[in-house]
Design a protein that fits this description.
Elements (H helix, E strand, L loop, with lengths): L1 E6 L6 H10 L3 E8 L7 E5 L3 E3 L2 E9 L5 E3 L7 E6 L2 E7 L16 H15 L5 E6 L13 H13 L2 E3 L15 E6 L4 E8 L2 E2 L2 E2 L5 E6 L3
Parallel strand pairs: 1-2, 8-9
Antiparallel strand pairs: 1-15, 2-5, 3-5, 4-5, 6-7, 7-8, 9-11, 10-11, 12-15, 13-14
Helix pairs in contact: 2-3
C-alpha cells in the first residue's frame, strides 16, 4: 500500500491532479484542500470544517476498490478520519506558531494547542490499526522552526500510545538543514517496504505548493 501526504496550500488544478496521479498512492493524506479538488478514481472525504472559505483543513483520498471505505466523525475540526476495511486513516493539520485565533481548538500556545488536539485524536483512533499523517507543523528531529518543543513531545507521546512510527521523521525538508513537517505514521507492525521519501511537486520548474509531498510504501493485509 502506497501512502502519500501533501499540503496543497489551498490550490488545485489539472497540474495538481496529474502530479498526484503520477505518485500512484493508494491513500492520500491531504491538507489545506480546496473543496473542488477531484482525484479521479478515488473516494475523497473532507473535514467538515473549513480553514478558509471552501478550503477544508484536511482530506483523505482512497483509491476506489482498495477496500470498504467508512467515514467517521471528525475527531478534531482540523482532522478527518475514515476506515478502509480494518485500517483507520486520519489526516490532520496540527497547530503552528502563528495560528492564533485561526486555530479551531483549545490551548493558549502551540504546545498546549497541540497537546489538546492530539488528545482528541487519541480518543478516536485505534492503537496499532491507524495510519495518521498530514501537516503536523512540527519537525520530529533537528531544529524546530514552525512548532515547539512541547508540541513535538505531545506528538511523540501520541505516536507511542497509538503504536505508530513516523516514517518521515528523518526525511529532509525542501530547505537544507531542516527535517520535514509533513508526516506519515504507520503501525509498528507494518514496517515500510522501502524508506519514506520526499517528492518534489513541481511542473515546468514551478512548485505547486510551498510544501513537497512525502510518500511511503507499507505491507498491510
Amino acid at each position: 500500500m502506497r501512502i502519500g501526504t501533501w499540503n496543497v496550500a489551498g490550490r488545485w488544478s489539472s497540474a495538481h491532479a496529474r502530479l498526484v496521479a503520477d505518485v500512484g498512492a493508494d491513500v492520500w493524506l491531504l491538507t489545506e484542500v480546496p473543496r473542488h479538488a477531484e482525484l479521479t478514481g478515488s473516494v475523497v472525504a473532507f473535514t467538515g470544517a473549513d480553514m478558509a472559505p471552501e478550503r477544508a483543513w484536511a482530506a483523505v483520498a482512497v483509491r476506489a476498490g482498495l477496500g470498504n471505505v467508512d467515514r467517521h466523525a471528525d475527531p478534531h475540526p482540523a482532522s478527518v478520519h475514515v476506515s478502509v476495511d480494518d485500517l483507520h486513516v486520519c489526516s490532520s493539520v496540527l497547530p503552528w506558531r502563528s495560528a492564533g485565533a485561526a486555530w479551531p481548538g483549545d490551548g493558549h500556545d502551540v504546545g498546549s494547542r497541540t497537546e489538546a488536539a492530539v488528545g482528541q485524536l487519541l480518543r478516536a483512533l485505534p492503537a496499532g490499526r491507524t495510519v495518521w499523517g498530514g501537516d503536523w507543523n512540527h519537525a520530529l528531529e533537528g531544529p524546530e522552526t514552525a512548532g515547539s518543543a512541547a508540541g513535538r513531545t505531545a506528538i511523540r507521546t501520541a505516536l507511542e500510545q497509538l503504536d505508530l512510527r513516523a516514517v518521515t521523521a528523518d526525511v529532509p525538508h525542501r530547505f537544507d538543514g531542516l527535517k520535514g513537517i509533513d508526516h506519515i505514521a504507520v503501525p509498528t507492525s507494518a514496517p515500510p517496504a522501502e524508506p519514506a521519501r520526499r517528492v518534489e511537486m513541481a511542473t515546468d520548474g514551478r512548485h505547486l505548493s510551498d510544501h513537497d509531498a512525502y510518500v511511503t510504501d507499507i505491507d498491510w493485509s
